[in-house]
């Protein structure tokens, strides 16, 4: 839908102090650019509110102009949103709502609906506290938390969605409401897992945890050792205590000059992660992995805020494609399938194929949890490829999707929406009962079907 002149007037007049960009405006192309540069999202309008009032004004103006609304903080998961028809959608980009405040007494953080993790981790760390952030410092707190949130403390402390204590949201009528265990508790339940389907979140409150340091680091082997290491890892991971959360990756390191020579252009096996415990306890837990004599071993005491960069995820806008699945135990056949398709060198376009260790608290339903409070299975798998040119994109797409297809026999059939970079049926993320409940909450809070989420409930 193109925005006609009268709608244009409505949008620009009502949108408050924030800016609204329409196609043809000088700022439109930069405003519609998401973190994932490989995604070309083409909405009818993009709003960049600076305050909660601006958000309400933007939503009202979108509705008056006959547009639907999609909330987006960074665009890390822009792929499934852009795969939908956005020609009648205003994207409300919440990045400027980036306030962070910490209450060290109550061990609670309150952050804006556009905040990223890096400043939150730093502010909490100044009080000896830690949030259940993930591997990337610039992922948005909103999308991550509302989609579940698997981080380095997950097997001990669960998913981040379970640490949320309140969510503040602008409804599709432009009203500001709070959802917590007492107020709008049905909405609070639904938001914790089905995120952007109900309104534009302007603030989140969540519990912090008294963690000032951990035993964390990397173990690295050449890819020639991949089968041997993954066999040992699978056995180890299934019995590891809850204090440890790790990831197993095959990394195809690009031959870039800024990468140190011993790693440049190589395919490597990397196990990284964190132990919530003393150095002695950490060493004891990692003994079976270290017995495989890694080429590099950086495990040691790290201040908790350093975990936000432990995984060395790309910071800043990046062109990438990815695929994901939740997997059960692989066994020898699954390990062979994984290694054969993942350890293919940097020329393949595949940068990483990763198994995030599940189990522990991640595998247990949380008391008072939301729509997604746990994940069953042994691994959350994801693979990522570069998408800098159309040729690279095609190669990476084939590599990442080929890998997920090859692993299909070990898939649990559940999708973790947090890792899903393309559209997946809602029925693969929530069972029928939950899906019915989620749809009922959506009908109550968004009866006119205004919100367009990355992962929808249909
Ligand atoms: C490099 C990288 C590392 C990652 N690491 C991890 C990890 O360690 N653990 C993990 O669990 N996940 C991880 N993820 C997945 C990540 O959590 C999801 O992609 C998440 O959706 C990103 O949230 P965002 O707000 O940054 O992205 P966006 O694309 O801005 O948002 C994604 C969706 O969340 C909803 N949303 C966002 N903001 C709002 C808002 N203000 N109000 C209402 N709805 C909103 C919308 O539906 C939106 O489409 C990673 C992803 C990448 C690309």
Overview of this structure, please?
The chain has 458 residues and is of the alpha+beta class. It has three domains: 5-93, Uridine Diphospho-n-acetylenolpyruvylglucosamine Reductase, domain 2 (2-Layer Sandwich), CATH 3.30.43; 100-210, Uridine Diphospho-n-acetylenolpyruvylglucosamine Reductase, domain 3, CATH 3.30.465.10; 213-419, 3-Layer(aba) Sandwich (Vanillyl-alcohol Oxidase, Chain A, domain 3). It has helices at 5-14, 28-31, 52-64, 78-82, 117-125, 141-147, 154-157, 185-194, 226-239, 279-290, 331-342, 390-406, 432-445, and strands at 19-21, 45-48, 68-72, 89-93, 100-103, 108-112, 164-170, 176-180, 200-207, 213-222, 244-252, 267-275, 296-297, 300-303, 320-327, 350-357, 379-386. Strands 10, 11, 12, 13, 14, 15, 16 and 17 form an eight-stranded antiparallel sheet that branches. A five-stranded antiparallel sheet has the order 5-6-9-7-8. It has a four-stranded mixed sheet with strand order 1-2-4-3, covered by helices on one side. Helix 1 (5-14) runs antiparallel to helix 3 (52-64), helix 9 (226-239) crosses helix 11 and helix 11 (331-342) runs antiparallel to helix 12. The site of flavin-adenine dinucleotide has 34 residues, from strand 3, helix 4, helix 6 and strand 9.
In short:
The chain has 458 residues and is an alpha+beta fold. Helix 11 packs antiparallel against helix 12.
């Amino acid at each position: 839908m193109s925005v006609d002149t009268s709608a244009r007037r409505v949008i620009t007049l009502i949108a408050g102090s924030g800016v609204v960009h329409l196609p043809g405006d000088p700022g439109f192309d930069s405003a519609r650019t998401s973190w994932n540069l490989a995604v070309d999202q083409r909405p009818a309008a993009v709003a960049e509110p600076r305050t909660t009032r601006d958000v309400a004004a933007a939503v009202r103006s979108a509705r008056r102009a006959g547009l639907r609304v999609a909330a987006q903080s960074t665009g890390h998961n822009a792929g499934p949103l852009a795969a939908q028809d956005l020609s009648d959608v205003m994207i409300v980009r919440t990045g400027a709502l980036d306030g962070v405040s910490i209450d060290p007494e109550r061990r609670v953080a309150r952050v804006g609906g556009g905040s990223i993790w890096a400043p939150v981790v730093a502010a909490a760390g100044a009080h000896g506290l830690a949030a259940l952030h993930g591997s990337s410092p610039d992922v948005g707190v909103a999308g991550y938390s509302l989609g579940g949130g698997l981080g380095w403390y997950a097997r001990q402390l669960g998913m981040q969605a379970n640490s949320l204590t309140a969510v503040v949201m602008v409804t599709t009528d432009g009203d500001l409401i709070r959802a917590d265990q007492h107020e709008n508790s049905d909405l609070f339940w639904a938001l914790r897992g089905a995120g952007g389907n109900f309104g534009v979140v302007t603030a989140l409150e969540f519990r912090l945890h008294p963690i000032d340091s951990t035993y964390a680091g990397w173990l690295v082997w050449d890819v020639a050792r991949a089968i041997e290491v993954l066999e040992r890892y699978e056995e180890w991971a299934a019995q590891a205590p809850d204090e440890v959360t790790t990831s197993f990756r095959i990394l195809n390191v690009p031959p870039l000059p800024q990468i140190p020579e011993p790693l440049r252009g190589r395919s490597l096996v990397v196990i990284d992660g964190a132990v919530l415990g003393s150095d002695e306890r950490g060493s004891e837990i990692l003994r079976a992995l270290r017995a495989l004599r890694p080429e590099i071993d950086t495990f040691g005491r790290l201040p908790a805020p350093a975990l936000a960069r432990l995984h060395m995820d790309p910071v800043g806008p990046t062109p990438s494609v990815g695929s994901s699945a939740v997997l059960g135990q692989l066994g020898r056949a699954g390990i062979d399938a994984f290694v054969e398709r993942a350890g293919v060198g940097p020329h393949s376009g595949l940068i990483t194929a990763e198994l995030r260790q599940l189990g522990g608290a991640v595998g247990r339903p949380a008391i008072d949890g939301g729509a997604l409070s746990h994940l069953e299975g042994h691994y959350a798998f994801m693979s990522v490829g570069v998408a800098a040119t159309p040729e690279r994109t095609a190669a990476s797409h084939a590599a990442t999707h080929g890998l997920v297809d090859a692993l299909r026999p070990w898939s649990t059939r559940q999708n973790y929406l947090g890792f899903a970079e393309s559209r997946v049926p809602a029925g693969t993320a929530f069972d029928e009962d939950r899906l019915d409940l989620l749809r009922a909450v959506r009908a109550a809070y968004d009866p006119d079907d205004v919100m367009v989420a990355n992962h929808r409930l249909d």
